[in-house]
Amino acid sequence: MTRPLVIAIDGPAGSGKSTVAQKLAERLGLTYVDSGATYRAAALKALESGIRSDDEKSVIEVIASADIQFSTDGSRARVLLDGRDVSRQIRTPEVTFAAAKVSRLPEVREKLIALQRSFARGRGVVMEGRDIGTVVFPDSPLKIFLRADPEERARRRLNQEKQEGREATLEQTAYEIGRRDQLDAERKISPLTPAPDACTIDSSRLTADQVVERILEIAGERKLLSAGN
Ligand code: DC
Fold first, then answer.
1. How many CA atoms are closer than 13 Å to the CA of 57, on its beta-carbon side?
2. Cα(first)–Cα(last) distance of the chain, in Å?
3. Around Cβ 172, how many Cβ atoms within 10 Å?
4. Is 129 near ligand 1, meaning CB less than 6 Å away?
5. Is the CB of 30 under 6 A from ligand 1?
6. Which residues does the chain have with pLDDT short of 70?
7. Which residue, judged by its Cα, is nearest atom 15 of ligand 1?
8. Which of 35, 160, 179, 180 has the fewest C-beta atoms under 10 angstroms from its C-beta?
């Protein structure tokens, strides 16, 4: 039996990963998995437990006990933490920074990588993140690394913040994106970097649909879209 298709989409914040990965999953009838949401849910668990972020041992312990799942509500993916829908809570700026911090801890990554792999057991997925092509699914036959100019990424992130009802300015958003890029790229384990066999696509001047078409072209060239996908 052939293994279900796993498409890895990596890239920095604001590169368009989420929109592209969701559209691609829909086009191909695959399950969309947002790996970043698992780091965010883990960070929320640590924040809610009230432990100080520099008490790494306790942070690791409390995250070890977190039950993180995805469910779908119509076409929307929901994130469940210990059975509770936390899809909104994990998008706050506080959780965003806490997620960047907890994602530096090897024990936390180990747990969440195993969880992310379990989501692809027996089914095809489009998974987006930072290390999907390098670490989580190094055998994926289709790895995309999305990049975009910093100004464009800040603009997109600002739009997203506004849609979610949060007040922000372009300067503030650009600053936060820059700080997060730095944390992600400097991280000792699984820093944000393209896999050697990833196709890099610059989405600065492309719409999400154009990026999806480009990925489908590559998938077609590699004969990955046969029956079943
Ligand atoms: O993609 P995002 O902004 O939701 O990710 C939240 C944080 O989790 C971000 O700081 C990077 C981290 N992350 C990671 O280390 N590895 C992944 N595969 C996905 C996200």
1. 0
2. 13
3. 14
4. yes
5. no
6. 1, 73-75, 226-229
7. 103
8. 179
